[in-house]
């Protein structure tokens, strides 16, 4: 950790804190006296507003009572303050019904009569108030008069305390409107504070109504039942303006005020010291930057911090920021409102402690922000966001709605269960709600709970089946009805099970065919190779005749060609299967190509004794193919027919066009039993002659299949008993 970087940021934080303190409160206090401060101006104004309504601009209550009036809207408001006439009468009857019944039950005739009289009197008053405007107006006037009399009593009660407050003042004030002058104390005495009011400096405005009475009386219980206008509404505008002078004689300054003056002067010194400390911090930061720039700018990020989630880092910044604000406002309040019970030493210690703590918190904020900005620049905000908890939660919420139906069902379940719990709490608090809760419990909650348990059961079935399938065990079908996500999953799981079964079957078949392939390849290669080795050894004998030698050489030549053919066919089919075969396509006449292939084997066909029946159109039939490879495919199919057709039977060779495709068809009766699995005929080295006495390599159909596949065509084999049929289709041009 680079201590110079931390020191530099701490100095910047110190300077920032000093500037903030100076701008927020220091500018209003440095260079002025306590009597010029905002706090004192507020206190003197508040003192005058408390003295004014009692001593300077007192309301004439008797005159105000004489001038009282009642407006029509007040009559209607008074009548309907407790409801309509019928509502009020019914309310009175309800109030007295139980009391009268109790009196009757106790045989208390006198009490019963008194209660009935009181009830009837109140009902009579209600009816009179709704029928007689003058009676209602009289009641309202009496209520207003009561309010004004209460206000007069309140003024008399507070008069002594107000006179005590004015002892620290001296004033000569004249009412601008009436010309009446009020004097107290001697304004010519040596004073600590003096304020002049005139038309140039501004008048002193005093209200005749004490706001404390409004707060105390107008929100009383009576006013809630019989709302009346405020004092201001009853007596109108009651403010008065004064000219004159107000002073605070030095000999009248109270001890409390002296302590405030002392605290104010002390605060000014602390503001100055704070500013000086800020200047020193700026100077120190500048010196560090100039002398140790590389070290100052090198602020390595701790690896543990880089591994933290984005939310943790942001919460850390917010927490430290809150701590800084609390410390900052505590520091500002401390130096702005130092009181007498702190001595200078305590003030210095507390101020320095709060200042250092605020600097520490601000430094931590700045450092964390710098680290976060660096991470954003280096790694990008996307990487930080990707590794955050909020992003993970949002991703999980999005995953919940990958299948919208399951997401909606989950929300419904959560809402119903939440409302059910809320309703149960309501029933516990107010048992009467069971009347509404019970039907909803049966109609809504029980079906939802059944659905929840059903879904959990279905999930368990799918989970167990999936586990068994993962262990390699073939499971039975999972039956889940409906169209839910779990039902679809069970359906897919059943399809997967069937795919696994088929895959295992194919794998077993592949292993069997692989074994047969190795066996067949070994046999077909070993037979000519053995002959070559044998006859080569015979040629080494000295006493061979020329006739025997030529015979042996002929056999070697034949067996070598056989071995060459096998190897070339194997290489070619492997190359085709790997997709490395390059085609040279061009527009070719398939009819002519078939005729050439048949002509190539004309002697073999005559020697076989087979009857080839050729059926093709005399018109050209064109397709875009590799002529050499396509000829090879035709050649393989014709040779296959010559070798494996039952002697004395017919072979049908057809070339025709059907639906935009050219079809080459070969049909014959086989001399060997083919079996039921036709697909195995396409396997390499697979031959109908399982004893492998014929000269074939077993690669003919495999090569033909590969050639057709490379051209995008199709080759199909159909077997019906001993009837063998090959159909090759290719798109015509």
UniProtKB/TrEMBL annotation:
Its EC number is 2.7.13.3. Pfam families: HATPase_c (PF02518), HisKA (PF00512). One of its GO terms (cellular component) is plasma membrane. Keywords: ATP-binding, Cell membrane, Kinase, Membrane, Nucleotide-binding, Phosphoprotein, Transferase, Transmembrane, Transmembrane helix, Two-component regulatory system. It is an enzyme of class 2 (transferase). The chain crosses the membrane at residues 269-289, 310-331, 351-373, 410-430, 436-453. This is histidine kinase. The lineage of its organism: Bacteria, Bacillati, Bacillota, Bacilli, Bacillales.
């Amino acid at each position: 950790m680079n201590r110079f970087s931390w020191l530099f940021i701490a100095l910047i934080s110190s300077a920032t804190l000093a500037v903030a303190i100076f701008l927020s409160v220091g500018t209003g206090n440095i260079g002025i006296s306590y009597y010029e401060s905002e706090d004192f101006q507020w206190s003197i104004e508040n003192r005058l507003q408390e003295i004014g309504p009692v001593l300077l601009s007192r309301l004439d209550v008797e005159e105000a009572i004489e001038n009282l009036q009642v407006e029509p809207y007040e009559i209607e408001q008074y009548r309907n303050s407790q409801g309509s006439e019928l509502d009020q009468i019914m309310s009175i009857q309800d109030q007295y019904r139980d009391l009268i019944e109790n009196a009757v039950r106790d045989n208390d005739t006198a009490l019963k009569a008194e209660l009935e009289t009181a009830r009837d009197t109140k009902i009579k008053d209600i009816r009179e108030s709704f029928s007689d405007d003058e009676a209602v107006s009289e009641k309202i006037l009496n209520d207003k008069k009561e309010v004004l009399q209460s206000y007069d009593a309140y003024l008399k009660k507070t008069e002594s305390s107000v006179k005590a407050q004015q002892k620290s003042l001296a004033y000569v004030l004249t009412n601008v409107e009436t010309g009446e002058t009020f004097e107290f104390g001697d304004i010519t005495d040596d004073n600590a504070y003096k304020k002049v009011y005139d038309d140039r400096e501004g008048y002193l405005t005093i209200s005749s109504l004490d706001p404390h009475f409004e707060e105390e009386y107008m929100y009383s219980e009576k006013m809630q039942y019989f709302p009346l206008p405020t004092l201001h509404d009853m007596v109108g505008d009651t403010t008065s303006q004064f000219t004159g002078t107000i002073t605070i004689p030095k000999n009248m300054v109270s001890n409390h005020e002296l302590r405030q003056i002392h605290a104010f002067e002390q605060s000014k010194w602390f503001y100055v010291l704070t500013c000086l400390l800020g200047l020193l911090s700026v100077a120190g930061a500048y010196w560090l930057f100039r002398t140790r720039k590389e070290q100052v700018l090198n602020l390595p990020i701790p690896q543990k911090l880089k591994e933290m989630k984005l939310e943790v880092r942001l919460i850390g910044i917010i927490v430290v920021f809150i701590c800084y604000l609390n410390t900052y406002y505590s520091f500002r309040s401390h130096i702005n409102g130092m009181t007498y019970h702190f001595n200078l030493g305590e003030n210095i210690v507390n101020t320095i402690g709060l200042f250092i703590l605020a600097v520490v918190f601000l430094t931590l904020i700045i450092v964390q922000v710098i680290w976060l900005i660096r991470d954003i620049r280096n790694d990008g905000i996307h990487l930080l966001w990707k590794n955050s908890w909020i992003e993970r939660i949002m991703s999980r919420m999005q995953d919940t709605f990958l299948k919208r139906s399951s997401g909606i069902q989950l929300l419904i379940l959560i809402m119903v269960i939440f409302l059910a719990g809320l309703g149960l709490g309501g029933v516990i608090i107010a048992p009467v709600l069971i009347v509404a809760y019970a039907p909803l419990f049966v109609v809504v909650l029980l079906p939802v709970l059944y659905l929840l348990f059903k879904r959990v059961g279905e999930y368990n079935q799918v989970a167990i089946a999936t586990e068994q399938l993962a262990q390699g065990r073939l499971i039975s079908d999972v039956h889940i009805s409906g169209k839910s996500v779990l039902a679809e999953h069970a359906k897919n799981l059943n399809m997967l099970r069937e795919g696994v079964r088929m895959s295992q079957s194919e794998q077993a078949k592949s292993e069997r065919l692989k074994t047969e392939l190795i066996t067949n390849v070994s046999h077909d290669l070993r037979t000519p190779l053995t002959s070559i080795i044998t006859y080569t050894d015979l040629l080494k004998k000295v006493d061979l005749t020329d006739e025997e030698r030529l015979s042996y050489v002929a056999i070697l030549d034949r067996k070598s060609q056989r071995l060459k053919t096998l190897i070339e066919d194997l290489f070619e089919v492997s190359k085709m299967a790997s997709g490395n075969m390059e085609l040279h396509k061009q527009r070719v006449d398939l009819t002519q190509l078939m005729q050439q292939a048949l002509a190539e084997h004309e002697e073999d066909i005559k020697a076989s004794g087979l009857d080839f029946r050729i059926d093709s159109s005399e018109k050209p039939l064109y397709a875009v193919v590799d002529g050499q490879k396509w000829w090879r495919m035709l050649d393989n199919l014709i040779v296959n027919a010559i070798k494996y057709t039952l002697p004395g039977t017919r072979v049908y060779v057809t070339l025709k066009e059907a639906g935009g495709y050219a079809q080459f068809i070969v049909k014959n009766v086989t001399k060997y039993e083919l079996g039921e699995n036709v697909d195995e005929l396409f396997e390499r080295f697979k031959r109908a002659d399982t004893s492998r006495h014929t000269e074939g390599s077993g690669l003919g159909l495999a090569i033909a299949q590969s050639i057709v596949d490379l051209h995008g065509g199709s080759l199909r084999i159909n077997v019906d008993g001993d009837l063998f049929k090959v159909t090759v289709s290719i798109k015509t041009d």
